[in-house]
Design brief:
alpha/beta; Rossmann fold; 2 domains
């Protein structure tokens, strides 16, 4: 009799575990992929070649690149690669909704926790995901981790490296600046100067904040993206004239989380 009770209890625990497992999977609405990449930034660059998936540095180079893009022909439809820092936690859904409502495609989102222009400019991460997803446009949501830096010459160089990678590949781009909760030390002016009308000054918006009082809240992100859509449409950089119809969760658009750089 005791053996029967033990058997029934064990079977019950097993079934409960299976139910809990499948219930948890069912509640996850994002195809999250965890990828580990270190922000290894060599002091000296020995090679300009890049192999997707490796962690080589992108050489600075001496060739000047004009601040213009000859976009890949798409008939006006963009395949967008969305990259950036933790601000993407709130912004990914609004961006997905706006671009898909207007006929574009969000090919993938790469959220690199703790990242800044330093990591994106000096590793092969950007080149790797461009090769993997073949976007016609890269949208960056980046800069929240740089508000209090003062190495402005280096930050300017980082932005130029990122921009030149995209220009050389004929990839359209737009940089959504940091939604700053405090006044920065000057890096936003550097971004604005280097990127011109391809930069959205998010710091000028009044946005509600999440519990940490730093990141915009989920509700504020929709207000934020509405302002971005208006600006990109006006400047002819990314056509987003149609307002969203409801709020759809981006289930089929890959969401990649990268390790916090050290």
């Amino acid at each position: 009799m005791n053996h029967s009770r033990t058997y029934i209890r064990n079977v019950g625990i097993l079934l409960l575990g299976i139910f809990t497992f499948f219930y948890t999977i069912g509640t996850i609405d994002l195809p999250i992929t965890l990828e580990i990449k270190k922000a290894a930034i060599p002091k000296k660059v020995n090679s300009t070649s890049l192999n997707p998936g490796t962690q080589k540095s992108i050489s600075e180079g001496k060739t000047k690149v004009k601040d213009s893009v000859k976009p890949i022909k798409t008939g006006g439809i963009e395949r967008i690669l969305l990259i950036g820092d933790s601000q993407l936690e709130a912004m990914r859904k609004p961006i997905f909704n706006y671009v898909t409502t207007n006929g574009h495609q969000l090919s993938a989102t790469v959220l690199w926790y703790g990242s800044s222009s330093k990591q994106w400019a000096n590793t092969d991460t950007l080149a790797y995901y461009i090769t993997k997803y073949k976007p016609t446009m890269v949208v960056l949501v980046l800069g929240l981790n740089e508000l209090f830096v003062n190495d402005f010459d280096q930050r300017k160089l980082n932005i130029q490296k990122i921009k030149n990678q995209l220009i050389n590949k004929g990839i359209n781009y737009y940089w959504i600046g940091p939604a700053a909760w405090k006044k920065d030390l000057g890096v936003i002016d550097i971004m604005q100067s280097e990127l011109g009308n391809r930069f959205f000054p998010s710091h000028k918006l009044t946005l509600g904040r999440a519990k940490d009082n730093r990141h915009p809240s989920n509700d504020a992100a929709w207000v934020w993206m509405k302002a971005v859509a208006k600006e990109t449409t006006k400047n002819g950089l990314l056509s987003l004239p149609k307002p969203i119809q409801g709020k759809v969760t981006p289930k089929k658009s890959p969401f990649i989380l990268l390790k916090v750089p050290k």
